[in-house]
Design goal:
alpha+beta, 37% strand, 398 residues, 18% helix, disordered N terminus
Length: 398
Amino acid sequence: MKERALNGAIIRGFAAVCIFAGVIIFQTGCGSRKVDLDKAVSVEFGGLDGQGQCTWDIDYDYLAEQCSGKGKSPIDELAFELLADEIDGTAAPLDGLSNGDTVRINLTYDKDLFKKYDVVLTGGKNLEFKVSGLTEATEVDPFDPMVFDVESGEGIYIEYTGTSPELSVQIRNTLPPDNILSQVAYSVTSGNSGHVKKGDQVEITAALPYQLTEQGYVLTSEVKEVTCQKAAAYLTSLDEIDEDTWNKIKAECDDYKTAEIDNPSDYDHYVQVTGENISFYNSTVTSDFKYVKAYFLTLKDGLSNTFSSRTHNCLYITYTVDVENAPTVVRGQQFADDACGCFVVKDLYMDADGNVIFDTGMIDSETVLNRSEEELVNSRVKKQVDEYVLTETELGWS
């Protein structure tokens, strides 16, 4: 990196010349002015050992003073400015330096131009400067497995909020102030917030504050990928429903049956015929209740329920029941005594510890009956297969 401040340097140089010579124009004399360029080059080293930088410069005040010596031709300010602009150079290497390295500088200039003003330049070629004074680095591992991505105790926690596939990632640092990692800034640099799913790779970036880099601290690495594992997730398969959860679901369905189906005087029921829901009178009597099948719908990959009414999954528990006192003909269509209904469980999920979560708020009973299970499945379940994956199983419940 070469720095020039021609205007200020020239003015200062020529101010010094005025004091020395008493005039702005340098007087002539016998002989040429000889200037050693080696003495005009200065270097500075800074930064950490192994990551150091070099800055270098040409001292134009020094050149102006040297050019004020006796010569055959006077040099005014504009002429010196022209000459100074002709001095250029290269230096390498300028960064990634370690103590003991060598930086080489070579200056270039037009000798003939300088000779017109009786200036003979020497040196400035193959200058070597040994790197020194760089701060010794103190390495810090920001992803030390003893404290990074821990599950207990003091450390850096990677936490997932929400439910897969709509997780958000947050980083919590509980290390005490005397631990240097407590000052490291961690951030999530990949994985859209609110759209991370279990099994995704999440990129974590670490950065040191400026004051620590000034003190010589350096990170051994800056980026690490972690796998989202310990997080809640919506169920995607019937196989994920364990026996205990099935028993809880059945118990809740039995309660609905007792309250709404075995006591028809308290609830109106409806039969769906040609798209219309026709009310059964509350004097309708039902009998011979039987559970039939479980149909499970899970949202297809790539689809989301964000800004929509979609559920992540939906479990239909179907049953058949004999209906008495129902009209045999509804809207001109025959209605058989045996009808089919269902209970609906929405958004079953598994917590971060692998436990399937089901509560009473997830289940609902539908008072709309269909004339057959086939009609029910076609009208309510299979019509969703464009967005959902459908699986089914026999229940075997009594």
